């Protein structure tokens, strides 16, 4: 199929972007486009019929990547491949997840913020943002506001973003001493949508677990966050430093988590029960890996 007819504008200032969205909202609604890797297929299948596409790729202030206030701030027009290439290792969990986003050609056009705004429940970037406690910067007619990633996603491909608002940047906290990370997903082929996946962050101090954040994706209508700090600390106390022992001790807690957060009805790629088994295996392995990484001395 081909997209339904639409108008196309390419402003060079953020204020003009908002103005175009306000104007489009009076005439059937507008959509922001940057990389187009998520939006164009939606248009081609006529699952979305905006009256206007507002291209933000010429807005200079949205092309910046900065290290500021203990965060990596990524502008809305910044390509995924640029972050993957030029900021490798700055945010380890982001670096681990980006190679799983489609293929290199997709990441050369797709944007980090675009993936967040699209809010695909099987996408990697929303899960990473939720796990790391990222903050999205949003601008609309009423001015600018900041939204915690955990509150930004409200359902499958649905966010709390207003029809005349645009995501301008995401702030991703930089790692601190004692942080360890893990990321894994299962897909039929590399680049396919995830059947199930996890992003994990563990923070320790003096051998004590202070945080153990697990965010699952591909198993519900949005990223699902859980803090397993007490469960991981208990497993470590009972099993010591033995990875297999920690994994065994985590079994019941991770099983309970999977039973709670896997809400998909299943599809041709896997039933809900299969996704629970995959999620249990991935979450257990990455929790142990992240815990062990958190104990390593800083390089």
Automatic annotation (TrEMBL):
Per UniProt, the keywords (alphabetical) are:
FAD, Flavoprotein, Oxidoreductase
Annotated ranges, domain FAD-binding PCMH-type: 1-177
From which domain of life does this come? Answer: Bacteria
Q: Which SMART domains match?
A: CO_deh_flav_C (SM01092)
One example of the protein's molecular function in GO is: FAD binding
Residue ranges annotated as transmembrane are: none
Pfam families reported in the protein's UniProt record = CO_deh_flav_C, FAD_binding_5
Oxidoreductase as a keyword of this entry, yes or no, is: yes
| PANTHER family assigned | XANTHINE DEHYDROGENASE SUBUNIT C-RELATED
Q: What is this protein called?
A: Molybdopterin dehydrogenase
Q: Which organism is it from?
A: Intrasporangium chromatireducens Q5-1
